[in-house]
Amino acid sequence: MITCYSHNDDGHAAIRVFNEMREQSFIPDNYTYTSVLAALALVADREEHCQQLHCAVVKSGTGLFTSVVNALIAAYVKCASSPMTSSTKIFDAMDEKLVVAWNAMISGYVEKGLVFQVFEMFRKMQSLGINFDDFTYTNVLSACADTGLFLHGKQVHAYILRRETKSPGHFWASVSNALITLYWKWQIVEAASIFNQMREKNLLSWTVMISGLAQNGSSEEALKLFNQMKSRGLEPCDYAFSGAVISCAVLAALEQGRQLHGQLARLGFESSLSAGNALITMYSRCGDLDAAHKFFLTMPFLDSVSWNAMIAALGQHGHGVQALELFNKMLEENILPDRITFLTVLTSCSHAGLVEEGQHYFDIMQNVYALTPGEDHYARLIDLLCRAGKLSKAKDVIQSMPFEPAAPVWEALLSGSRLHGDIELGVLAAEQLFEKIPQHDGTYILLANMFATAGRWAEVAKVRKFMRDRGVKKEPGCSWLEVENKVHVFLVDDTVHPEVQVVYSYLKELVVKLRKVGYTPDTKFVLHDMESEQKEDALSTHSEKLAVVFGILKLPHGAAVRVFKNLRICGDCHNAFKFMSKVEARKIIVRDRKRFHHFEDGDCSCGDYW
Questions:
Q1: Which residues belong to any copy of the DYW domain (predicted)?
Q2: Where are the domains of the chain?
């Protein structure tokens, strides 16, 4: 019974039966201790319980059995409060170390994040001529994937190819799955190649590949693979659903995400942390903050990822104060914040203009929680200061950074300089970006925008020529929305969408109505030197305007219009949508590259601070 419960991953039941066995004066043998120690490892209980069983093993004399010693090592790995101390003592005292014992130690080092010791054990096994098995390879590859040691992982992969007689397609499934995990973080094409070569794919193989595609932004491919998996009769687990749900978040496919939520609920996966966290992100990124918040409140279990996802959601939708309140609630629940938590908090402060609060959280990250800010944290702090017009302070922070500022830091400074008209500082930031990311179109566009706003058209022409000479092409504006389960895409100056002429016609009528209630086209957002009337016409071709008007025409009266854009929303469009929301009595939600804007009754949730 103990062995049966242990093999079925029910550690608590196995331990309960073991205690009943001892109460009834039955004497455990080596098989019993092996099984109950395996059960203890499953539940990761307190170290004292492991020590009690260890004493019982010594008294019974079963400690001479290799299987019992291996089980003891595995149990101490899971239960010990100090990293690997007890398990190392037992391992070092073993006369005969089989591959199982080595694997248990390597697994422990992987779990504790001690990657140096993982490779040390791997090399010792090599030098002693111990044959590796699938568990050895899987653990070492997992260590490489978890710690970002991609080149080390590639070397291990090359070693496997040289040493093993099996062809890649016939590798152990666990090794192939570990290789997919390694490669999807760095080379998604190689990961797909390994997946496609596998002769026998298990549930984990499909799940890892779906997650990899989703994490790398190949969302459509992830959803296709998810559906292919189901068509082959495999029932997706909660992690596979998580990958599919995250793909819906990236694609802003709200209806498909809702359908996946329904399937999750029917299969009993709604209480899964991974699926639940994905659903929070999906609803938030699809513009339904209320659904994200409601689901967060109903989750039976929350981890730091859950809190981070909800804080990020509130911040992205412009509710900075509520995001900070939730962060404080997280601390009250004794959940320790991590690097991602502070990233979401700083972003929330930036979107809401909470400068003092943002500086405070940046400071306590280091001084209270001993977390060293990375490039991404500094970039958020610079963005916060620049949005608020504190450009001199932002420059001081950049000069005091403990490492060379990366591109996102200079991008934040350039954006702030454009926003507040500091051309000298903007040019300085742009020069840095031309060196670091010379093919990134955003630098040229922001710099040209800054010169255009100042009416310096000669400099605008120079920037455009510089851009052409370097072969850099501007990413075209693109907006999309979902109507009746179909995604409709609009480009800037669109002539492709089958109903675009109807949209242009209604937009022309709508602009007349908007003018009557105070709207005036803001032609400073047209970055070409042309006549005023031509500039107004150019504003009417922006992709987000076309998508919003299409939504107004096609969606039921009273339904919110949810539009998603690949670039930052245009200032004139932002102003027009405030008037449209009032004239059309519609809630209009726009997600651009940076954040969400909720337009309702003439106002925007960002408070015009964006």
A1: 518-610
A2: 1-96, 374-474, 478-604
Can you list the alpha helix ranges (DSSP code H) found in 470-542? Answer: 500-516, 532-539
Question: Where is 588: in which H helix or E strand?
Answer: strand 588-591
Residue 191's Cβ-side half-sphere holds a number of Cα atoms within 13 Å equal to 28
Instruction: Give the three-class secondary structure for 430.
Output: helix
490 beta partners: 479
Distance CA 480, CA 546 (A): 9
User: Which residues, listed in sequence order, are joined to residue 23 by a DSSP beta bridge?
Assistant: none
Q: Quick one: CATH architecture of 374-474? A: Alpha Horseshoe (1.25)
Helices (H), 454-523: 457-469, 500-516
**CA–CA gap between residue 82 and residue 86 (Å, rounded):** 8
Q: How is residue 602 written in tokens?
A: 């003439």
**Residue 540, CA distances (Å) to 152, 510, 548 in order:** 53, 11, 12
Distance (Å, whole) CA 2 – CA 40: 11
- H helix and E strand count, the chain: 32, 6
Q: Which two tokens stand for residue 113?
A: 């994040």
Interatomic CA distance for residues 537 and 126, integer angstroms: 72
- pLDDT of residue 38 exceeding 70, the answer is no
Q: Is the dihedral of CA 242, 247, 248, 250 positive or negative?
A: positive
In this structure, which amino acid lies at residue 486?
Answer: K
Nearest-angstrom CA–CA distance, 106 and 140: 8
Is 511 exposed, middle or buried (CB count within 10 Å of its CB: 0-12, 13-18, 19+)?
Answer: buried
What pTM was estimated for this model as a whole? 0.77
Q: Where are the beta strands (DSSP E) in 499-584?
A: 561-565
Listed residue (406, 218, 240, 242) closest to 309, CA to CA: 242
User: For helices 304-316 and 339-352, what crossing angle results, to 10°?
Assistant: 10
Q: What per-residue confidence (pLDDT) applies to 218? A: 87
Q: pLDDT digits over 438-469, tens only?
A: 999 999 999 998 998 888 989 999 999 999 99
Mean predicted lDDT score pLDDT of the chain: 86
pLDDT digits (tens, 9 = 90+) for 222-242: 999 999 999 988 889 999 999
CA dist 181 and 207 (Å) reads 10
- Tell me phi and psi for residue 491, to 5 degrees: -105, 165
Range list of H helices, 168-300: 173-184, 188-197, 203-215, 219-231, 238-251, 254-267, 273-285, 289-298
User: How many CA atoms are closer than 13 Å to the CA of 452, on its beta-carbon side?
Assistant: 18
- The identity of residue 608, as a single letter, is D
**Paired strand residues for 479:** 490, 565
Identify the CA nearest to 433 among candidates 416, 420, 447, 419: 447
Sheet of 596-600: strand order equals 486-491, 478-483, 561-565, 588-591, 596-600, 603-604
| Token digits of residue 355 | 């400068």
